[in-house]
Amino acid sequence: MSLKSKTAVVTGSTSGIGLAIARGLARDGANVVINGFGEPDAIEKARAGVESEFGVRAVHSPADMTKPDEIDAMIALAVETFGSVDVLVNNAGIQYVSPIEEFPPAQWEKIIALNLSAVFYAMRAAIPHMKKAGWGRIISTASAHSLVASPFKSAYVAAKHGVAGLTKTAALELATHKITVNCISPGYVWTPLVEAQIPDTMKSRGMTKEQVINDVLLAAQPTKEFVTVDQVAALAVFLCSDAASNVTGANLSMDGGWTAG
Length: 261
Hints:
Layout: E1 7-10, H1 16-27, E2 31-35, H2 40-54, E3 58-61, H3 68-82, E4 87-90, H4 105-133, E5 136-141, H5 154-173, E6 179-186, E7 189-190, H6 192-205, H7 209-217, E8 227-228, H8 229-239, E9 251-254
Parallel strand pairs: 1-2, 1-4, 2-3, 4-5, 5-6, 6-9, 7-8
Helix pairs in contact: 1-2, 1-8, 3-4, 4-5, 6-7
């Protein structure tokens, strides 16, 4: 349990990839701050499950990642509760699909705020605590779209490219402080959100479930397999280990070969 007595803050972690990462870090011994919106009962079940299954402490921060003052409060909560912020995982994100000339400005601003600016503000708040401790791990969930583009996803692609650049800059600034900064770039990940999209796509395109999965969702992934949340979590846990102490400034693809072509 290499993270025993350390504290991890994971944004957007009440479900999906974020929750899997939080659980993975807790399994490795870290106390965790989970963050995000959702049904109170479901959030409490997830939080209590982390504590009971892994023997660590877990608290929930309802901070809105589009609001810098609430991001500061989330980091402060971690420090006040556990005494440190050793691991920061920037995972919160949203998507919106539209041609550029029709893209609603409010949606552009929201996606940039949540998918990119929140990463900066969380880093800004957490880094002083990591420098003081002389150790830290910063991991951001980017996307295959941090490396390649798709049409009609201008804000998301711009934000994820930004996360990759911010990761490199932070890694260089923190290279002598025993703080590593990396991002993970998954392709399509099997989550309840993705699964829920399938019936509507079947109906709108007149396709079977298998056709939607292979010809729409996994069209870009040569393996024709979804990435799993546990695979992303395992990579995040590795990046927190001593074995990964010289992995920094990296953008690690986990996309079934999407960006290899």
